Amino acid sequence: MPIFLLSLLILSCHFPNPASKHAQKAVIPSATALASITTEPIAYPIWFLNPPTGLNFRTAVGYSPTYLDSDASIEAATQDGIEQLTKSISVQIRGEVSAIGDYQKQYFQEIVPDSVKETVADKSKILATHIGPKMTIVLLGLGEGNLINQETVMLQSLPTPSWIKEVPRQKGYFYGSGHCGKRYYEESGWHTAEEDARIHLALNFQSYVNVLVKHFNSQVETISITETDVILNRIEVVGRWFDIKTKTYHVLVRAPLSQNADAVRSELNQLDNVSPPSREKIIRRAFDELEEEVR
Fold it and tell me: Which residues pair with 67 in a beta bridge?
């Protein structure tokens, strides 16, 4: 099956960019205009900050600069949304980090199956759009679900989400949070934070498997994770936040363990010091309905 390699830092959409011919019309604010934009109240749709989720419902947001031609803006964001929606269904994350403590990344690739992308392009639909002064966003949906809250809220009126300081712990899911510093182009900041969140998700997944191994086999030393190569399914963005004071971007993602059994087995099969019976026991533990979490 053909695959595409995507660099973490260089985004490339494998569909023709319908807005490319309009690129020269992009709205590029002056320094004065940019200062006024960043000091004025910032508004986002609720569906952007708290995306809709569901077992039979997949959504993703596509980003684009805001062009003078609004149709070109929406079309470009839609094509990018197809890329993001494909990654939410299945993506292979491969790369190296310097240390798991602070997730200092060095180089990463994201690999997505071409066949899935074609299905998404054919069956996805636009659920909502929002054209801002610098960025246009489109919410794409795949599956059951149509009712989307179109309300727009001011960030200044909302409390900072708790997950900014501590990633949630929920039975049956593993989480990852991504961050990006101040960026001139708004869509670039959100793109980077969202990709960073997927990388953290992959690293946290491997750490979770490592904890399970340690729980069942105390003789196994804790592994310091410095690289990742894992295929994850059903990744969903569950929160976004822009810090007005620091001008930083934050994204929270999660994935269900029940949809990633193959990834658990793949990780365990790479451990030479874990016997096959122990591997199956660890897998059952990972998916059992437990009242307490393994820490």
Answer: 26
Q: Which helix (H) or strand (E) holds 212?
A: helix 186-216
**Please, what is the Cα angle at 276 between 270 and 278, to 5 degrees?**
100
pLDDT at site 225: 55
Q: pTM for this structure?
A: 0.77
pLDDT of residue 186: 94
Residue ranges of domains in the chain? 3-287
Are 86 and 112 spatial neighbours (Cβ–Cβ below 8 Å)?
yes
In angstroms and rounded to an integer, the radius of gyration of the C-alpha atoms of the chain is 20
N-term to C-term CA, the chain: 38
CA angle in degrees (0–180, nearest 5) for 104-213-170: 70
Helix/strand/coil for 114: helix
Best CA proximity match to 257, nearest among 192, 191, 194, 212: 212
d(CA 231, CA 270): 14
* Greatest Cα-to-Cα distance within the chain, rounded to the nearest angstrom: 65
Q: Which long-range contacts (CB under 8 A, 24 or more apart) does 6-11 make?
A: 6/109, 6/110, 6/111, 6/112, 7/108, 7/109, 8/95, 8/105, 8/107, 8/108, 8/109, 8/110, 8/195, 8/196, 8/199, 9/192, 11/80, 11/83, 11/191
| AA letter at 1 | M
